[in-house]
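Here is this case:
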Amino acid sequence: MRKHYFFLGLIFLFNLLNANFIDSDLDGVEDSKDLCPNSKITDIVDKNGCVIETLNFKEKSHIDILLGYSIKEYSDYTSKYANLYFTYSYKDYAFNLYLTENKEDDIESSISYTLDKNNLVYIFTLGVYIPTSSEKSDFFTRLNLTYLNNCCNLFLNLEYDFLRDSDTKNGYIVSFGIGKNLTNSIYSSISYRYLSFSSNEKYLSFTLSYDIDSNWYISSSLDIGLNSSSTKRVVNFNIGYSY
């Protein structure tokens, strides 16, 4: 792929330096000898400028953009804010970015790798939490395991956080649950999540998503705190676009 673009760059440079050589569609064949003019930049052509193969990026990569709105209910106040999730995937790799206007949450950036083997899906992730306040950035590693079958899917998520604040110890997050496709376009799940940090937070989570069409989808989730140190409730509403 990079080799293809390298040759395109050489052709463009040659066009600039040599006024006698004109290649309008940048396929490497001079216009006077090009039997198939106006080929696309993603086309690989023969000596006559005619298409041999077209590179299809959509089969190997896609982008997901999710715009969300969250409501966090604490014991003494309620916080409301918007979020933006962005994922660019190429083959089995993905770059993930989470942005939030909530000053209490961190910006999250990560790279993940997906391995699909039989009925098991493994997702390995390395990332960084960038604080919106003046604290230091923290790092994390994450493993997501999903077992798929005709009935439903079982999932287990493990995360270990490397915290750089001198008064805070490293910690881990464990969650597990079950999900099911209620119809071809509706998916729901229920899970339990535990955070090992000083607060020892525990949550019961419910999610529901609906595919509007092949690109657009909506989702919502509800987290219920199970102990006094947890946030009482967290509600999320999201609308996403995938292409």
About this structure: The chain has a mean pLDDT of 84. Residues 61-242 form a domain with the Porin fold (CATH 2.40.160.40). The CA atoms of residues 22 and 32 lie 8 Å apart.
